[in-house]
Amino acid sequence: MTDLLQLLFAGLSQGAVYALIAIGFVAIFTVSGVINLAQGEFAALAGLVAISAAGGGMLLPAAAVLAVSTVAIVAVVMERLVIFPVRGMTTLVSLILTLGVSTGLKALMLLIYGPDAKGLEPLFPGAFDLAGVSIRYQELLILAVAGVVALAVYWFYEKTLAGKSLRACAEQPVAARLVGISLSRASLLSFLIAGCVGAIGGVLASPIYFTGWESGLTLGLKGFVAATLGGLVSVRGAVLGGLLLGVLENLTAGYISTGLRDAVAFFLLIVVLVARPSGIFGRHAEARV
């Protein structure tokens, strides 16, 4: 029983990171219909920037803020230079463009930070035992911050006029323009949100899962699967999908084989796309997927 609880808690903390990456996918897709394959690189870049800044003597909170700010700027520049100039953006075109950005960011990170994976020092080092389960303070921090960020993004999109305006740009772009909503600013804001959320996930995960120039590929794929479980349009579905994926991965690694851990995400993706394209937790994605 103790082993099961340990695996469940580890899966929840890992799934919370996937959830943050998934929220980034949802934030962009619900506004512009773009699937951003560079979302994982946002997380990896944030982790490496924070590690480099902390290694240079900067306090960990300041290094985290610098990392999130840097990635936010990268996301905004990406939207203005790569996404915004393309008219009549289709899903296929967005995949090609963002894959190019992803590849470029990987090469840049390899050139600047080298090939070795590194880990950021935990903001709250140490652990404690609860009912025989070893719980690291960093894992609690991941769960707490991920919960706050998810609630904030959900509240923004579902409860505020600005958030509803962003969603209107994707669902009814012509009507949105007629009532004075700027599609350009909406797209820019969605990338800003996705960059910040992805960066937060990368900084939180680095002390436990380490960060390297290629770690964004795994994070991006897992985040995409989590977002797909929610139909790519639901923040709540993305969070639940991330948590579910993290738990299933850890249970698979603990009770079957560690070599099958990464296969869980792709198995889930195939099942969802075949059996329920709207996502396990999605209800209104049929027209978008």
Describe the structure.
This protein has one domain (2-215). The chain is mostly helical and 289 residues long. The protein is globular and about 60 Å long. The protein contains eleven helices and two strands, in the order ααααββααααααα. The protein has a two-stranded antiparallel ribbon.
Tell me the radius of gyration.
18 Å
Tell me the number of strands.
2
Helix fraction by DSSP (H/I, runs of at least 4)? over 70%
- Overall 3D geometry? globular
Largest sheet: 2 strands, antiparallel
Cα(first) to Cα(last) distance is: 40 Å
Count the DSSP helices. Answer: 11
Structural class: mainly alpha
Overall pLDDT: 87
* Strands ordered across the widest β-sheet: 1-2
Low-confidence stretches: 284-289
In short:
With 289 residues, the chain is mainly α.
Set down the secondary structure blueprint.
Blueprint (H helix, E strand, L loop, with lengths): L1 H31 L6 H17 L4 H24 L7 H23 L13 E4 L2 E4 H23 L1 H11 L1 H6 L4 H27 L5 H15 L5 H21 L5 H15 L14
Antiparallel strand pairs: 1-2
Task: Please supply descriptive tags for the structure shown above.
disordered C terminus, 3% strand, 289 residues, mainly alpha, single chain
